Amino acid sequence: MNGADIMVKCLEAEGVKDIFGYPGVAIAPFYNSVLDSDIRSILVRTEQSAAHAASGYTRAFNNEKPGVCAVTSGPGATNLITGIATAFADSIPLVCITGQVKRELIGTDAFQEADITGACESFVKYSYLIRDPEEIPRVFKEAFHVASTGRKGPVLIDVPIDVQQATVKNFKYPESVEMRTYKPTVKGNAVQMKKVIHELEKAKRPVLCAGGGVLLSKGKYEVLSFIEKHNIPVVTTMMGISVVPTEHKLCYGMVGNNGKPYANRAMNEADLLIMVGASVADRSVTQPDLVTKGKVVIHIDVDPAEIGKNASSNIPLVGDARAIFDELLGMDYEADYSEWIHTLDEYKKSMAVKRNPNPEYVDPAVFINKLSHAMDKDAIYIADVGQNQIWSCDNVCIREGKFMTTGGMGTMGYSIPAAIGAKLRRPERQVVAVCGDGAFQMSMCEFATARQHDIPVKVVVLTNNYLGMVREYQHYTYHDNYSVVDLSGNPDLSKLSDAYGMKYVRLENMKNADKAIKEFLDSKESCILEAIIDPMDLVK
Prior knowledge:
Layout: H1 3-13, E1 18-22, H2 28-34, E2 40-43, H3 47-59, E3 67-71, H4 75-89, E4 94-100, H5 116-119, E5 126-129, H6 136-148, E6 154-160, H7 161-165, H8 190-202, E7 206-210, H9 212-216, H10 220-230, E8 234-236, E9 251-254, H11 261-269, E10 272-276, H12 288-292, E11 296-301, E12 315-318, H13 321-328, H14 338-350, H15 364-374, E13 380-383, H16 387-395, E14 402-404, H17 415-425, E15 431-436, H18 437-443, H19 447-452, E16 458-463, H20 468-477, H21 493-499, E17 503-507, H22 513-522, E18 527-532
Parallel strand pairs: 1-2, 1-3, 3-4, 4-6, 5-6, 7-8, 7-10, 8-9, 10-11, 11-12, 13-14, 13-15, 15-16, 16-18, 17-18
Helix pairs in contact: 1-2, 1-6, 3-4, 3-17, 10-13, 15-16, 15-22
């Protein structure tokens, strides 16, 4: 066997079924060895999409195992960086494999050489450059362990072509991992958990803010059971949407500068704020000192570096959200928050945002609400970046399914390859990507990937012929002095759909919205639904 054979055997030992990538000479030995395996290779049309597809793939199945992508050296590897950074910002577990030039050529500016481990240093949880083929099994075992434990994230493995070609006499995949400096905390501190219960007993106005870490820990059931048991109101960050069903009586929506006004008010007026798996970033908490002032703050996170980083906390609790709330469920206390719940319900009624849409166009807020209600209960809704993302966050209805987007990096073009990955992993689920006409054009080439591998994708395109979110910023900041946001020259999506062998549905206003949505969702083949929205529409 050679090093490439060993790499494939390592993936097989980890239960990998699919990899996303783009070949080149420096990764050719690996892809040659994959041919002798049951592992399926999915050829994307640009390397960034390999990471996005791998992200959608693992997120669609609760991040059980890291998604895997493999690309060649040089430009192949550098094209992958944005996808890696996107996963890192949202703590998505990936194992990213890159080919590299021969060991003897490293550092010589050889053809298609790039210091990818150095370039990705701030965007990976850990990285490896394998110089000894005998180290391949250990490195792969560690990579999968690191990516999928603690605060999850992408791990990079850079493998020179001659390491892939080198003969390896024996193969034995490690049964366990021993890393002296990496031992993430899972179980919460018992004393700190008693403090949590004590504060909940004293509180009159508690609020739990659920972040994406709840979903990453697979702790959705435990958190939902806890808040239902004690009648605790919940708000979410963008990445925490779908922790609690949208129409749950205790759910008050997304917080932040694009969130629900009543969700933000709930956080501001709470006397106890419990943040779970939330990084307290600027988009969700724009003024952390004001939000945390005059209240007890409990911050629960598996990553100790997140606690206190952006907002001070009175009770830090390090550990896995699922494990912690499983323990908290067994710790009873008595409290009555009914008056607080009544107040929040009144806020929800009185502070609801009222839109005045142009009837000549599709109202994106109403359309997204209709679409999500028409989707299957366990469907996967994937929002891209831009106005479409904010309208989705504010109006989508998630019941038993998933809401996926890129929150930390905000990478345009994420939704289509992520939808391909999600549908490949969960073919029985309904998967819908929603994007604007700007983001759409960043990854529409991936329709060829879907077509080649027979992956039926459903994509909604909200067309306004603008980079809408930037135009909206220029509207408020520069008083309608627009610069480089006009998307004139957009492709004819009816012809594009035909070129890729896809069904096409067009919706120009809300009169036939229900009919168009039904036709779109009922299609067994890949389908684009283009909704024409007012170019001057605003998310707020």
